[in-house]
Design a protein that fits this description.
By secondary structure, the protein is mostly helical. The chain has a single domain, classed as Metal-sensitive repressor, helix protomer (Methane Monooxygenase Hydroxylase, Chain G, domain 1), CATH 1.20.58.1000. Helix content is 73%, strand content 0%. It contains three helices and no strands. The two termini are 17 Å apart.
């Protein structure tokens, strides 16, 4: 299993930007809910949903790329377990 969070060697440097992106997506989703409740135009709602989806996708990619970049250093010998972790996490890209 691949663990992420405070035990990750780069959690202090990587996660604040990712958390910021996710909080932005939460705000966008709250806006979408208000738009739907306010019976706003379908195209406007769809555009906001697209923006929220893109924000989440970018946060996910940044999170996974940070993990990979710091888990696999150049010149390191890669174990079977490390390759298994890479395979497991890369399916989410």
């Amino acid at each position: 299993m691949v663990y992420c969070g405070v035990s990750h060697p780069t959690a202090d440097s990587a996660n604040p930007e990712i958390v910021k992106r996710l909080r932005r997506a939460i705000g966008q989703l709250n806006t979408v809910v208000a738009m739907i409740e306010g019976h706003r135009d379908c195209a406007e709602v769809a555009m906001q949903l697209q923006a929220a989806e893109k924000a989440v996708m970018q946060a996910k990619k940044a999170f996974i790329h940070e993990h990979i970049a710091h888990r696999f250093e150049p010149g390191d010998t890669v174990s079977r377990q490390a390759l298994s972790e890479l395979h497991e996490i890369s399916k989410y890209l």
